Amino acid sequence: MTIISRESLQKSRWMLMLRASDNIYFAPAIPYKKLQGAMSYLPQGIHPDEILMLIDDTVFGSAKAGLCVTATGLFYKESFGDEVTYLFKNIHHVEAEIGVINHGIVLNRMETLTFTQLDKGIVRTLAEFLNEVCQSQASQLGQQIPNAKPFIHLYTYFMLGYRGEWHDKAREVMATIFDRDIFKATDKQYLIHFMQSNQRQDLYEIVDELKSISLELPLQIRMMCLDDAMGIIVLRHFPDTNWVLEFAPVCQALNVSEQMAESLINKYEQYFSYTVNTKQSKPKLTVEQQHACEILDIQPESLTEQSLQSAYRKKMAEFHPDKYQNLPESVRQLIESQAQQLNQARAILKRYLDNN
Q1: Measuring CA to CA, which of 51, 200, 280, 288 is 20 to 30 A from 334?
Q2: Of the candidates 107, 141, 175, which is a domain's last residue?
Q3: What does the alpha-carbon distance between residue 184 and residue 147 come to, in Å, rounded to a whole number?
């Protein structure tokens, strides 16, 4: 499904600011040498004509690392890193991450794409632009929610509790949630009638209803609906032990991974007495493993394959050899030694994760 086109890109309110960067190029004015460099990391089947926007994140302008945006997704290559593809249909949120040296964008609050050649203002603009693309996608996907009744039942369950008694505040919140184009008029009408009488919902029946529609919904819509449910949980001040047990089967029914569920839940951690972890507890880290976490700036409690990969990439980007070619030999040796420490720390933590 086409999410953005050359025409819609030209009309974007962020276009002028993005064009101000010397490292960002737009079709049809992308230099051939830049396209040629980017093709080194693009998957087979992607034609140069499909590239709408190209970010060259190299020091010498080879464009063999950076980001390409097409009508359907993002194609990213970090220096010394692997090529990664992110389809727009699987992205529901984009935000900027501003560091001391390098800056980047974070997809779905998990995947970090680091840039060494973009200033923080451009990175913030890029994040705003891509987040706007994702939000416009949600509007385009509105027709793809054929049946929103399971979500009405789910929100009602968390909103009203076991008593199922409506009150004005609950009706107001529900009306606000469903006042969006992604919900059909028939479902909005159903909600009006539904709120006229008390409703005692059964969670297991709701889970079955969610399973029946989950395959029809893109990830972005599923995550948005879970985000709505979390907002209601926060509003209701649920005891932690209650909602955690009930939220997990809802995530499973909607085919949302543990990592993505944790990321969503931890976004609201300030409202709860503890940060939720849906996975089983792991063995305590050794002193060596804790030191490895310190080297990579990883909080031990948030150590996962994903956080390790993201932290390692971010750290290694600071040791890009192009930055230090003109420094004295002794300084370069010190930098290489620090980079080796990062490699060792990564190996230690990877072994820990592989064994647990």
Answers
A1: 288
A2: 141
A3: 8
How far is residue 192's CA from residue 196's CA, in Å, rounded to a whole number? Answer: 7
Domain-located, residue 95:
yes
Q: How far is CA 101 from CA 117, 268, 311, 315, 355, in A?
A: 10, 28, 14, 10, 33
Amino acid (1-letter code) at residue 139: S
For the chain, percent of residues with pLDDT exceeding 70: 86
Residues 173 and 237 in one domain: yes
Residues 65 and 185 both lie in one domain = no
Element (DSSP H or E) covering residue 74 = strand 73-77
- Between the two ends of the chain, the Cα-to-Cα distance in Å is 39
- Domain that residue 197 falls in: 145-271
* Token duo for residue 249: 């089967």
Residues 10, 136, single domain; the answer is yes
Contact by Cβ (8 Å): 69, 50: no
How many Cβ atoms from other residues are within 10 Å of residue 170's Cβ? 18
- Rounded Cα distance, 182 and 342, in Å: 46
Q: CA-to-CA distance for 122 and 133, rounded, in angstroms? A: 16
State the CATH number of the domain containing residue 315. Answer: 1.10.287
Q: CA 336 → CA 323, 333, 339, distances in Å?
A: 12, 5, 5
What are 162-202's pLDDT values in tens digits? 778 899 988 988 988 888 778 889 999 999 999 999 888 88
Q: In this structure, is residue 314 part of a structural domain?
A: yes
Q: Count of domains in the chain?
A: 3
* Mean per-residue pLDDT, 110-126: 90
* Residue 129 CB partners (closer than 8 Å, separation 6+): 12, 14, 18
Is beta strand 73-77 parallel, antiparallel or unpaired with respect to 66-69?
antiparallel
224 shares a domain with 120? no
The backbone torsions φ and ψ at residue 176, rounded to the nearest 5 degrees and listed phi first, read: -65, -45
